[in-house]
Amino acid sequence: MMHKIEDHIGRRFEKLRISLLNTCNFSCVYCVSDNTEQVYQGVVPVSKEEQLDPDEFVSLIQSVHQLTGLKSIRLTGGEPLLYMNLIPLIEKIKTIGIEDIRLTTNGYYLKQMARQLKKSGIQSINISIDAIDLDLFRKIARHNHPQRVFEGIQAAVDAGMQVKLNAVIMRGKNESQIVPLLDYASKMGVKIRYLELMKMGHLYQGENELFYSEKEILDTISQDYGISRLPRKKSETARYWTAGENRIFGIIANESTPFCHDCNRLRMDSRGYFYGCLSNANGDKLAPYVHDQELLTQKLRQLLLMKQPARFHGSQLSMRNIGG
To answer: Residue 3 — very low, low, confident or very high, per pLDDT cuts 50/70/90?
Structure first.
């Protein structure tokens, strides 16, 4: 029985983002502090006892789905391809009746997993890539083998998945890569989305001097290409433009053009804590309520009330914990 879980401006939970684990084989500068003593700031390592297995994930997903009618699931991390039972989990989610299962990855293990992921039910995949220049890529990801990511992108395209590239743009770090990334995405026949830097985790208290705005991104692309706006779909995080000749790009402008007003996302971390909004760092464990629809409905309504009315205000949550 579906309950009406909706706030005063009509927002509902329609998409669930699940952080499968909070470990990653990359240490990207916007996710992990330069200070080695603070490398895991905002990340509490998940013990084996706390890490959910596929059946535990599915029990929670199914309970929420029964009350909200979820339209899609996105599996994130940390790095979701490190989750040992990923394929069985995807197959179990499909049995609930949710066909739209997506994944966000750094792409490192994608070369060997792309076809298996597609076969298991992943139709759409987002891949993080913050530079075309390999030396710059190494500096940002703090990983020595960026070429594996490009091979993973090719494998995902070859497997027939819908691919989007995500690039976090940072002043003084990789704004030089905006147009090369667009050209690469065009060559691959995929969309690219540029992300404004979010004040999360170790960046929460900072001045955000690395911030590079939506307007600056558009100005940078306009120096090389004529651009035109595309209509925004309801609840879409990105606004999209075309730049001619198969070049389609989006910008997720969390600061410049907030999209909180029609956000439809609910988030779950790898320990089973749910978050109605990134701005609120205090999650709620829903497992105790899965057999009581009235209490679970009440909890979901409380999580919906956590959503900001207009804009994101930063969060102590780490991207490794919650998947962005």
So the answer is: low
